[in-house]
Structure formats: C-alpha cells, structure tokens
Design brief:
The protein is 72% helix and 0% strand. The chain is mainly alpha-helical and 203 residues long. It has a domain of 27 residues.
C-alpha cells in the first residue's frame, strides 16, 4: 500500500488551478505591457531608423559613384592591354603552339627508335615554342589595285598630253578659203546713202 503523507490532492489541484489562473492573468498583463512598450519603442525607433537609413544612403552615394567612376577608368585603361593580349595570343602564341604540335608530330612519325623520336619531338617542340612567329603582312589588295590604277591613269594622261602637244597647231584643212580667190570683177567705190529721219520716229 501507498503511504499517506497527509496531502490533500484535491486541494493541491484547486490551488494549482488558482495559481494557473493568476499566472495567466499576470502573463496577459505583462504581454499587454510588453506590447505597449514595443509599440512605444517602435514609435521611438522608426524615425531614428529612417533618419539613419537616409544618412547612410547620403554617405554611401558618393562612395558608390566614385567606385563606379574608378571602375570605369580601370576598364578604359584595361582596354588597350586586353587588346594587346588578345593580339599576342592570336598572332603569336597560337601559331607557335600549332607549329610545335606539327613539328613534334612529324618527329614522332619519323624513323628511328622510340627514345630518339621522343627526344627529337621534345627538342623541335621546345624550339617551335621559343621561336617567335613572323608577322604576317596583309596583302592589302585593294590598296594595290587602287595604286596601280592611279599609276596607269597618270601614265595614260601624260601620254595623251604629250601626243596632243606633238600635233600641229594649225589644222591644214582649216585655211581661209577666201585668201586664194582672185576675182576679175571690179567693185566701184560707192558712198553710203543717207537715211532721212521720218516724222513718225519723232513722235
């Protein structure tokens, strides 16, 4: 059997319920007070937080703009360098690698022992990688055609000018046809007639 300790369980239950109700009432009051304090804190903190945000934006805007300007300047300065690097890779390094692969491949496929072919391929590849490529000059065919056309036109023009100057100045067929005519008729000299003025001209 269980020992009886002299505690009344019903009484403990009722006291626990009363304590629970009292704690619930006090918890409700504390929650209401905490809510009021939180609202007061929010009312107090909201304008200050807004002011702090505006101040931070005002301070950060020049920094962000200067950082953007510096980034733009750096990008502008990097453009020629990037163009130069691209030109070197395309015009120098890739042809070297291509030549090294071709020469190593041809050395490996040559006659001889495997060690000799591998050594020769390594030497030719290293030589091809260290030898700079010659710059390929553009043919510039348009400029050549334009130059030759201009030169030909100049020669033809000078030839025409010289030919034209070598021609006689007077055309033999354009002689004065009346110069050689001889006439037997004598034309008497006559005085010019006087013209009278008519009365109609005065009016």
């Amino acid at each position: 059997m269980a020992k009886n300790t002299g505690l009344d369980t019903d009484k403990l239950k009722t006291e626990a319920l009363q304590i629970r109700d009292a704690v619930a009432v006090h918890a409700g009051r504390v929650a209401v007070a905490a809510t009021d304090l939180a609202e007061q804190g929010l009312d107090w903190a909201a304008p200050r937080a807004q002011a702090a945000l505006e101040t931070a934006i005002q301070r950060a805007t020049p920094l962000v703009e200067s950082a953007a300007d510096r980034a733009q300047d750096a990008a502008e300065r990097a453009k020629p360098i990037i163009g130069d690097v691209r030109e070197r890779v395309v015009d120098d390094y890739l042809p070297r690698i291509h030549r090294a692969v071709e020469e190593s491949g041809s050395a490996l496929s040559a006659n001889g022992s495997l060690v000799e072919r591998a050594t020769r391929a390594r030497e030719l590849g290293a030589l091809a990688l260290t030898t700079p490529t010659r710059k390929v000059r553009r043919k510039r065919t348009f400029l050549k055609v334009l130059g030759w056309t201009a030169a030909t036109g100049a020669v033809v023009g000078i030839g025409y000018l010289l030919w034209k100057r070598s021609q006689p100045i007077e055309d033999p067929w354009a002689e004065e046809y009346w110069a050689d005519l001889e006439s037997d008729t004598i034309v008497p000299a006559m005085e010019p007639e006087k013209v009278e003025e008519s009365p109609e001209d005065d009016a």
